[in-house]
Amino acid sequence: MGNRASNHEEISAFLSEFEYQQKNFSIQYDYPQRKVFKAAKKRNQISHSSNRRCSQNIKKSLEYKVEGNHYIQLKQYKKAIESYTQAINLYDRDSIYFSNRSVANKLLNRFQEAKQDAEKALKIDEHNSRAHFIYGTIILIEVQMFPDTTESLIKQAQLGIKELESAQDQVKISKNEQKNKLRVLINQNLAKGKRMIYLIRQEIDKRNIQSLKQTLLDISHRQQLQLDWNLIEQNIKRKIEIQMPEYFVCPILFEIMEEPILLNSGLSYDKSSIQQQFRQNGYIDPLTRQSIDPLSLIENIQLRNGIIEIKKEYGWIGIEHEKDYKAIRFE
């Protein structure tokens, strides 16, 4: 299956938390320790008498977490899992520890373990966007593994879509710049998941059509009727493939735009991607190299409405071209 060859470099680069990591693990733990400790006290999990011991456990757990993040960068995922497990054994109320271990398990194709860790992370913090992302993605991968194509698969896939949409909502709420990369992965898997549902429905429709044709053929033979098969084919013809306009795709992200912004150069880009380009390179069109007036940026309403209409009509929108839903590669 394609998912076993997922882009490890892209995922491991930012799906784990690296905000406390420095060279040679020389880290100041005061701020993160206070942050975790304060959250624990707020949940009434720490009594006054156990403050000191718990504080030491939290500090040590943070060291293991950073160690795990380091192993993720080195692509030593088994060692990363060991480090995250040590952190969890010392302090099991930090949602990030579980979602980070979930990432490492997924990168090793340990899908059940990854799903379990994501579920545990969400029990601690229902707003953990990474956990929603992993949980939803694993559900979609499990759908691909099922041997039979049935209506129940669609319902299961819709659960995965729901989790990814929850992840998307959390990333939209967040102002964290690093989560923009996670947002790209979420959008990719959302599009692929909806494409998968579309292809599953196609397979079910084909099977039902063949059954219907055989039934009509049997009836016509028994009653000695002549059927107009051309007319029947027209009436039961399945949906045609979606021809995706190239201008729906952001020239920077190569993904379908969500908030298309029109520049005075005449080109449109997704809002998040072009804003990042402006921050890095100044107000210059990345394709035409034309100077851009920041006050002239306007939302491309017609383009946005066109994208929304296709989403409503087909239930998915993306640049995927797989014909077999089991061949779709999730990030």
Low-confidence stretches: 14-31
| Average of the residue pLDDT scores | 79
Number of helices: 12
**Apparent shape:** flat
Structural class: mainly alpha
Count every beta strand, where a strand is a DSSP E run of 2 or more residues.
3
Largest sheet: 3 strands, antiparallel
Q: What strand order characterises the main sheet? A: 2-1-3
**Helical coverage, percent range:** 55-70%
Share in β-strands = under 5%
Q: What kind of assembly state do the chains in view correspond to?
A: single chain
Q: Order of helices and strands, N to C?
A: HHHHHHHHHHEEHEH
Radius of gyration: 25 Å
Distance between the termini: 13 Å
Pick out its properties.
mainly alpha, three-stranded antiparallel sheet, 331 residues
Structure description:
The protein has 331 residues and is mainly alpha-helical. It is 61% helix and 2% strand. The protein has twelve helices and three strands; from the N terminus they run ααααααααααββαβα. The protein has helices spanning 8-14, 30-42, 51-73, 77-90, 95-107, 111-124, 129-145, 151-173, 179-223, 229-235, 271-281, 301-314; strands at 260-262, 268-270, 298-299. A three-stranded antiparallel sheet has the order 2-1-3. A hairpin with a 5-residue loop joins strand 1 and strand 2 (268-270). Residues 14-31 have low confidence and may be disordered. One of its GO terms (molecular function) is ubiquitin protein ligase activity. InterPro entries: TPR_rpt, Ubox_domain.
Structure summary:
With 331 residues, the chain is mainly alpha-helical. The chain has helices spanning 8-14, 30-42, 51-73, 77-90, 95-107, 111-124, 129-145, 151-173, 179-223, 229-235, 271-281, 301-314, and strands at residues 260-262, 268-270, 298-299.
